[in-house]
Amino acid sequence: MDLLHVSIKKAGYESNESIIHSIDFELQSGELIGIIGSNGAGKSTTIKGMLGLLAHMDGSIKIKNGCTYSYIPERPVFYDELTLWEHLDFIAAVEELEQEKFHSDAERLLKKFSLQEHKHQFPQTFSKGMQQKAMLVLAFITKPSFYIIDEPFMGLDPMATKLLLDSLQEERIRGAGILMSTHVLDTAEKICDRFLMIHHGTLTAIGTLGAFREKCGLHNGSLFECFHYIAGEAADE
Questions:
Q1: pLDDT digit string (tens) for 212-225?
Q2: Inside any domain, residue 117
Q3: Do the domain assignments include residue 139?
Q4: Domain count across the chain
Q5: Which residues make Cβ contacts (< 8 Å) with residue 3, sequence separation at least 6?
Q6: Considering 65, 93, 118, 198, which has the largest number of Cβ atoms within 10 A of its Cβ?
Q7: Tens digit of pLDDT for each residue in 144-156?
């Protein structure tokens, strides 16, 4: 069975206004799906629908029995009164993580993302890039069944981006699924198995890069080129 099945007939922030509609897809173990689309296309609204944050939604979000997930938002969110280590300790308590393994995993992740020296500091004092790395550490510590990630490359320097990509690959090998919204199409082309293209709130195209190329008639086209072709075609309809 799929880790996640999303079927949204229509959804929005007001009862009389539909922002997204006809969004239907599944996420499988070890799969990395890229959600792509222009600003305002409905990517973040789709993620909010999956997280149960939309007051008005006609549809269903089905998560495989026993599966857990981590959500990494585009803008980092922290508790003002907690240090980074206290954030980690709080998650460990809520998720009932085994203490010895938690400490080992936490120290490994902090070292990996160069945050060991800052673990007893408040994340609000961090730079934007450090805050983004802190969010990644908090997400990875629970080893969830799948991840929902909104614009993960924002604020990350090249070294941190490489660390993130390596970490995502490790999680995929472990069997975790990854659903990632991004504007960075050249990177998405290299790492994603499939793509969901949302345009004006509708799932306009879904499939591999090969399927996108076939749809466009661009046999050697990049994801960037296919994206613009499909977007232009949808605008003409």
A1: 999 999 999 999 99
A2: yes
A3: yes
A4: 1
A5: 27, 28, 29, 63, 64, 67, 145, 146, 177
A6: 198
A7: 999 999 999 988 8
